[in-house]
């Protein structure tokens, strides 16, 4: 019959922490639930209040579907049931129920129930300003302490008051409950590190990510059937990165690492041989000196080899350490070369690129080259060498049957691995395609954050992003399922070979043809061989994946430069700055000509304006003159030199451009202006800003010239960005100036100030101006023929209409400025009632 006892057993006290070689149960089962309940209640309550006050309910479609989250809830519920069962069972079976057992059961139930509540709150609500992902610190701390508390029980391994001895039914049940708590709390902690039930990104970032339709997004080229097609070409691209040219030190490192690779192969042969010798020496009762020597040599070899196949041995670790420098060299060379190649591509390619897609291709491609070199040099070749060596050794030392078994198993293994891996390549490629599409369009959506807000399209963007993720996950499932099938096939072949060889070797041992050590040698060697062979499929898959990941990067390398320097092209010999367009034809797309038989001349020091409607080709002329494109017909000359025959760098060194759409670097205003001439001093930068009428504005900023302009200069207004671009061009001090709507984003007064500054800068410089409005100077105005301002006004037509409308707008602006000044003057006059003060 159960009776209510004291708080602790009769032979214990809560003040005693150590009892008979272990922690006192009374102390342990009081401390643990108290700490857990304290953390769960106080930190959890604060956590819940914070989420309710500052959080927002997540839309169901953003909450990931996760079986692991269901497992988290199931394990928590299992622990709750376990604590209740333990308390009930002990009350029903024990003659006396100590008070600490009741406290342990009750506090634990409350603590774990509160932990479940925290888990569900995090599942349904998200902090609006949360910049992290994963579970809260309170929940992770609770799980970590719960798991640590169960591990603390090992300290009492030799104590008779604990259940380790399994002496009676009570200890056996307590041990079973402890095993359940240990496994459940450990799983909860490790699963909690992954946080499967929560979004993988901050919620506010997640709801703003999505894919956006991009022109020609549905045009997907049919992938090649095998990643090994074009293997020679791929290897030819990789050769420069395999051998670090120009660095004798790195070349010596490569040779030394290859030498260590050969040492590993030899060690792999001698390890099982010395293990066999130890068994035979012990069986034959050899002298201690002989056995000790053999054991020491075996341990030394094992130390050098590591945990089988050189996975973590001294030689392997030394090789990996020395290879870091070579790997860094490869990574740097690939990225720098690709970055330089991207900058050499034409404007047409950059206007049509997907930034997110390019960045993903670069990241995966560069990392894949390192992985590919490592797998081929240090995994595939050594594994093949080990297979060949093992077949020769088994044939010579045992007999041909063992060599045949190894050969058949290896052949089947490698053949099926290659066939199945080739078959599942299409799933991996499709998964990469879906991943690239989702990420590139997510980047595009974030870059157009303001547009999304303008049209209240958040929900639309989020819904489409979820669709992209579902497509990616469908491809990912096929990839993982085919991987599981491959692994099972490999395990079946390995198990069959090991069974056949072991039975044959055991038979020869029973017949007296082999020693016991020979059986040990076969088992050790074959398992040692199968260990890297088991990874061979992984290595081959990783090589396949590396080739797939590099395909996009290779495509970037294969992009041809549309605008190239002619063979033996010389530098532009600038003299006076005379510009000539002679019968120029150009079109962006075949069948739609932008410029047709355009001819005009800009004399040295002259300013010519290109005026016309949008789409008439004004900005195209600027791009052709800067040689962003080559003309399809006709010729463009500067000082009598065909610009297609000179080096692009020398041509652009003499030309300064103020574009219509100014994009700044995410840097300071000072560095953005200094980009016009990198070597310019701070004083020269400020003088350029004064000339561009932005110096006074910059000085009003808290950080002055050190003000960060934000991504693409979004922290500045349109007019401020344009004036920074003008200052940048002024600092470059080019001989030829191209102004593409240089004052389009400015107010009337600032425009006049800038025009005055530009007039000074353009003095004695050849200048081409693009404008939607007329300019009182020499004009090229398609479709009307070119001519002087006065001549075009007398002819009437489109130019005269544009001039009339401009004059009306300017008169209106002048009237507005006058009224504004009058109002300011009136405000400055003191009121009549305050005249005497």
From TrEMBL:
Residues 806-837 are annotated as: Disordered. One of its GO terms (cellular component) is lysosomal membrane. It catalyses: coproporphyrin I(in) + ATP + H2O = coproporphyrin I(out) + ADP + phosphate + H(+); protoporphyrin IX(in) + ATP + H2O = protoporphyrin IX(out) + ADP + phosphate + H(+); uroporphyrin III(in) + ATP + H2O = uroporphyrin III(out) + ADP + phosphate + H(+); uroporphyrin I(in) + ATP + H2O = uroporphyrin I(out) + ADP + phosphate + H(+). This is ATP-binding cassette sub-family B member 6. Residues 255-545 form the ABC transmembrane type-1 domain. Residues 806-817 have a biased composition (Low complexity). Its EC number is 7.6.2.5. It is a multi-pass membrane protein. Residues 818-827 have a biased composition (Basic and acidic residues). The gene is LOC115383765. Pfam families: ABC_membrane, ABC_tran, MTABC_N. Residues 579-820 form the ABC transporter domain. Homodimer. SMART domains: AAA. Signal peptide: none annotated. Belongs to the ABC transporter superfamily. ABCB family. Heavy Metal importer (TC 3.A.1.210) subfamily. Keywords: ATP-binding, Cell membrane, Disulfide bond, Endoplasmic reticulum, Endosome, Golgi apparatus, Lysosome, Membrane, Mitochondrion, Mitochondrion outer membrane, Nucleotide-binding, Secreted, Translocase, Transmembrane, Transmembrane helix, Transport. It comes from the Eukaryota.
């Amino acid at each position: 019959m159960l009776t209510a006892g004291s708080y602790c057993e009769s032979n214990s006290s809560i003040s005693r922490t150590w009892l008979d070689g272990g922690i006192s149960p009374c102390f342990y089962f009081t401390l643990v639930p108290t700490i857990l309940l304290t953390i769960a209640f106080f930190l959890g309550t604060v956590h819940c209040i914070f989420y309710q006050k500052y959080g927002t309910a997540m839309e169901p479609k953003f909450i990931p579907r996760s079986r692991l989250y269901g497992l988290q809830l199931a394990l928590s519920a299992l622990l709750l049931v376990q604590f209740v069962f333990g308390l009930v069972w002990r009350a029903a079976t024990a003659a006396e129920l100590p008070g600490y057992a009741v406290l342990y059961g009750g506090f634990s139930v409350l603590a774990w129930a509160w932990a479940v509540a925290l888990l569900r709150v995090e599942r349904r609500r998200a902090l609006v300003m949360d910049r992290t992902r994963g579970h809260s610190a309170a929940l992770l701390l609770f799980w970590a302490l719960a798991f640590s508390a169960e591990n603390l029980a090992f300290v009492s391994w030799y104590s008779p008051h604990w259940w380790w001895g399994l002496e009676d039914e009570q200890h056996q049940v307590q041990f079973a409950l402890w095993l359940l708590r240990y496994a459940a709390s450990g799983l909860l902690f490790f699963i909690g590190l992954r946080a499967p039930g929560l979004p993988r990104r901050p919620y506010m970032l997640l709801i703003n990510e999505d894919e956006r339709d991009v022109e020609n997004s549905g045009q997907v080229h049919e992938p090649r059937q095998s990643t090994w097609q074009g293997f020679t070409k791929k290897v030819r691209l990789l050769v420069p990165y395999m051998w670090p040219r120009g660095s004798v030190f790195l070349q010596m490192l490569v040779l030394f690492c290859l030498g260590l690779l050969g040492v590993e192969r030899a060690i792999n042969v001698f390890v099982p041989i010395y293990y066999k010798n130890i068994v035979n020496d012990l069986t034959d009762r050899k002298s201690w000196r002989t056995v000790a020597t053999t054991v020491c040599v075996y341990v030394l070899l094992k130390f050098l080899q590591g945990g089988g196949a050189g996975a973590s041995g001294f030689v392997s670790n030394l090789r990996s350490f020395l290879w870091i420098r070579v790997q860094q060299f490869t990574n740097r060379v690939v990225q720098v070369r690709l970055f330089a190649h991207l900058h050499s591509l034409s404007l047409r390619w950059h206007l049509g690129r997907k930034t997110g897609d390019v960045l993903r291709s670069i990241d995966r491609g560069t990392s894949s080259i390192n992985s590919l070199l490592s797998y081929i040099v240090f995994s595939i070749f050594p594994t093949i060498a080990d297979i060949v060596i093992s077949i020769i050794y088994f044939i010579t030392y045992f007999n041909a049957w063992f060599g045949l078994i190894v050969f058949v198993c290896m052949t089947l293994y490698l053949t099926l691995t290659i066939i199945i891996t080739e078959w599942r390549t299409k799933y991996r490629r499709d998964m990469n395609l879906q991943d690239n599409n989702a990420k590139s369009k997510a980047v595009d959506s974030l870059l157009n954050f303001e547009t999304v807000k303008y049209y209240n399209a958040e929900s639309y963007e989020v819904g489409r992003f979820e669709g992209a993720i579902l497509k990616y996950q469908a491809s990912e499932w096929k990839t993982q399922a085919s991987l599981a099938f491959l692994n099972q096939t490999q395990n079946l072949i390995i198990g069959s070979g090991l069974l056949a060889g072991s039975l044959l070797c055991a038979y020869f041992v029973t017949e007296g043809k082999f020693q016991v050590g020979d059986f040990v040698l076969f088992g050790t060697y074959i398992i040692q061989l199968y260990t890297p062979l088991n990874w061979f499929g992984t290595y081959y898959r990783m090589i396949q994946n590396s080739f797939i990941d590099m395909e996009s990067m290779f495509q970037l390398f294969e992009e041809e430069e549309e605008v190239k320097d002619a063979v033996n092209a010389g530098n532009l010999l600038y003299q006076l700055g005379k510009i000539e367009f002679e019968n120029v034809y150009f079109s962006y797309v075949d069948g739609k000509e932008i410029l047709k038989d355009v001819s005009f001349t800009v004399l040295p020091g002259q300013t010519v304006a290109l005026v016309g409607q949008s789409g008439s080709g004004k900005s195209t002329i600027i791009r052709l003159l800067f040689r962003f494109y080559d003309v399809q017909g006709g010729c463009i000359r500067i000082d009598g030199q065909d610009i297609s025959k000179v080096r692009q760098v020398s041509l652009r060194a003499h030309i300064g451009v103020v574009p219509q759409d100014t994009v700044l670097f995410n840097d300071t205003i000072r560095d953005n202006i200094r980009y016009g001439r990198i070597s310019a001093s701070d004083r020269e930068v400020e003088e350029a800003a004064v000339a561009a009428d932005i110096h006074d504005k910059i000085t009003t900023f808290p950080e002055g010239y050190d003000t960060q302009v934000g991504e693409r200069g979004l922290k500045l207004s349109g007019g401020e960005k344009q004036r920074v671009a003008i200052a940048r061009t002024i600092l470059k001090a080019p001989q030829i100036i191209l102004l593409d709507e240089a004052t389009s984003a400015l107010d009337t007064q600032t425009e006049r100030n800038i025009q005055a500054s530009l007039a000074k800068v353009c003095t004695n410089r050849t200048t081409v101006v693009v404008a939607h409005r007329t300019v009182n100077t020499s004009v090229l105005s398609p479709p009307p023929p070119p001519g002087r301002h006065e001549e075009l006004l007398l002819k009437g037509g489109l130019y005269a209409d544009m001039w009339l409308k401009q004059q009306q707008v300017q008169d209106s602006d002048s009237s507005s400025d006058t009224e504004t000044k009058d109002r300011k003057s009136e405000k400055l006059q003191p009121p009549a009632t305050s005249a005497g003060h």
